[in-house]
Design brief:
The protein has 106 residues and is α+β, with helices and mostly antiparallel strands. The protein contains 4 helices and 5 strands, in the order βββββαααα. It has 2 domains: 2-51, no CATH class; 55-105. The structure holds zinc ion (ZN). Zinc ion is lined by residues 3, 27, 29-30, 32, 49, 51.
Length: 106
């Protein structure tokens, strides 16, 4: 799931202690992992997060923008069938498909 692009300091982020020797730094909004260390002092001071793009974000973006596969095919120099095949829910979203909802959520 995507969320607005956010910057967090280590103090704002969520630090989870897994065991004696492992701490994880997570986004407080989506829980995405942004680092691990044996000591919280070694975790990154600053993280940037906008979640993990998923097919539902891609779908919501397409719907709100009213973009068809034909429109995207023109941008990519491809065909609508090819765009449809590349964005099937059982496949990982291609990088170009990830970049579009990213701009939308900024
Ligand atoms: Zn996040």
């Amino acid at each position: 799931m995507l969320h607005r692009f956010r910057e967090y300091t280590k103090n704002e982020a969520f630090v989870e202690r897994i065991n004696e020797a492992l701490f994880l730094l997570k986004c407080p909004e989506c829980g995405k992992e942004h680092g691990s260390a044996s000591d919280p002092d070694f975790l990154p001071e600053l993280i940037w997060c906008w979640g993990t793009p998923a097919h539902e974000d891609w779908k919501a973006y397409k719907k709100e923008r009213g973009l068809t596969n034909e429109d995207r095919a023109k941008i990519l120099g491809s065909t609508a069938d090819s765009v449809k095949s590349m964005t099937q829910p059982d496949k990982e979203l291609p990088k170009w498909a990830v970049s579009m909802p990213y701009e939308w959520k900024r």
